[in-house]
Amino acid sequence: MRTTKDLNVTFLGIIPVLEDKTGILSPQEIVSLSSLLVFKGRSVQQLHQDGVERGMDRGKRIQRIMKKSSLRGHASIATTPVICFSYEGSKFLDSGLTSMIFASALMASGRRTDTSREDIIYPTTISARPKAKEIYKRNSEANIDLSNFLLAEDVQKDAASKTLQFGVYGTGIFQFPLESIIALKREWEAEKDWMPEEIGLLLEKIEAQLKNYGVDLLYATRTVAPRNTYPYPNIFRNPIPSNVVRDLIKKRRVGEQTTIVSADFIDTPNLKKRLNDLNKDIQKMIKDKGGIKKNWYQVLLKRNQIARDYHLSANIKILSTVVLRVWGEKKRHRTVPMVVESIYYCVDRAARVFKKYEKQVQQRKLDKKAIDKLGQVYSIPRSIAANENFLYAWLERGLDSFNAYNQMIKLGVKPPDALFVLPRALKVDVLQEYNLFNLISGYYPIRICSTAEEEMRLLSRKEVVMIKNLLKEKGLGYLANHLVPKCQAVGFCLEEKPCGMIQALVKGYDDRFHQEIHEDLEKRFQEQLKIINKK
């Protein structure tokens, strides 16, 4: 039986570390000496050598510098050292950590990995209560069994996996600047009653490693410094205080799942000219397949230059209610600022709706209105809704999981532990802000691709239609023309198998040319590798 206490963390290294004939400089020694560069204009090695020649006490010198810089909250000192580690634990660590703005992560994908009963992870307050443990075990196994049954019935994994809970085994690799670890620690101190206990266990393991990594002084001074860290979207927080998402949701029309709440544009002649010129370049490029091979890279660079120079010319805020699984994708776009509602608020809302229709779910007598109401708080994928047996099995698992959650709370289980039983089909509210980069190059071109997660793709395409209509109303059709999938931005499909989207842009785009362009891409890679290896 796996438990949250079994969290396994493997530390993979830290940077920067400098090793030369005089010895090894730790990260905090490097950043301490680097802080002197501002005033003395000399290299780290020179400053270190000066100290050696003058017989300065190395430890005392670093402490003195730390007190004058990091203790005052100079963030650049703490953003420089970066710790990398892998973990084995529950998938809630993904939800709790990958929204960190300045961190980076590679996670095992729930869209691609299998899940069995052996993958269930038991939180502490559930393990300590036999009745709660039995409730949790029974419902977790039922969620997994339904997911695997649906997969056996040829339901796509994007849909079937949403009945799985996050309280199952997961792995990943994280890269965290020290400043981000301190941001996580402060969030933990403020919201520890609402955050998964694994986050606290992870922080303990990281802090135990700090001295070995040579950043203990830096961490200690920055932790107590009277300066805030940059906030990040944390779904695990006290549900009582309101937030901008909740304030806006109250004003939204009933049943509306996504809406533009504000939009500001700076319309300049030069932006229009550059986007129109880019469109001409694309149209010229796609006239023949040789043109695509020859010119796609320059077209890509030109798009990026426009996004660089004009990314603040567009600002659109969109309020959406999305399935928890989709939020898991959204939060990893660190160039898209967001505020997310507390998961506990969304759980209570969904539980109330399921309670209202409990008898109809159990008796399998739901009308369309009731199904729509349930679908507003709990995802019902199209392939599930299309099959009555799948639909009721799906909703029964949702109903039983919410009931299990509330039963365990009454038995004294902490809310973050009780969350482990809830399926990823739960819906949460999120407000996101998109600039020009994310409209034409970053977020939307990726998320409207046919390979994107099903509900993410459908939602993103709906939002793109809304944005395009708004742009045209404002006389900005030249910008609307560039809200396209990633294939149409470069003239060929980047995936293994092309779909109709690229064929809509490039006439005669077939499997043969698709293979040719990817062989050309491989050739470019090999040429670049040779150049690098010669240096």
Tell me about this structure.
By secondary structure, this protein is of the alpha+beta class. Among the domains are: 1-114 and 167-231, Gyrase A, domain 2, CATH 3.30.1360.170; 257-335 and 426-516, no CATH class. 55% of the residues lie in helices and 13% in strands. The protein contains 28 helices and 12 strands. The protein has a 4-stranded antiparallel β-sheet with strand order 2-5-8-6. Helix 7 (130-152) packs antiparallel against helix 20 (388-410), helix 13 (269-285) runs antiparallel to helix 14 (289-310) and helix 16 packs across helix 20 (388-410). The longest helix is centred in the C-terminal third of the chain and has 24 residues, at 511-534. The protein is globular and about 80 Å long. The two termini are 52 Å apart. The model has no long low-confidence stretch (mean pLDDT 92).
Which features would summarize this protein structure in a list?
535 residues; alpha+beta; Gyrase A, domain 2; 4-stranded antiparallel β-sheet; 55% helix; 13% strand
Which ranges are low-confidence, i.e. pLDDT below 50, for 5 or more consecutive residues?
none
Distance between the termini: 52 Å
CATH architecture of one domain: 2-Layer Sandwich
The CATH topology name of one domain reads Gyrase A, domain 2
Q: Please count the beta strands (DSSP E, at least 2 residues each).
A: 12
Oligomer: single chain
Class computed from helices, strands and strand pairing: alpha+beta
Major sheet strand order? 2-5-8-6
Strand content: 5-15%
Globally, the shape reads: globular
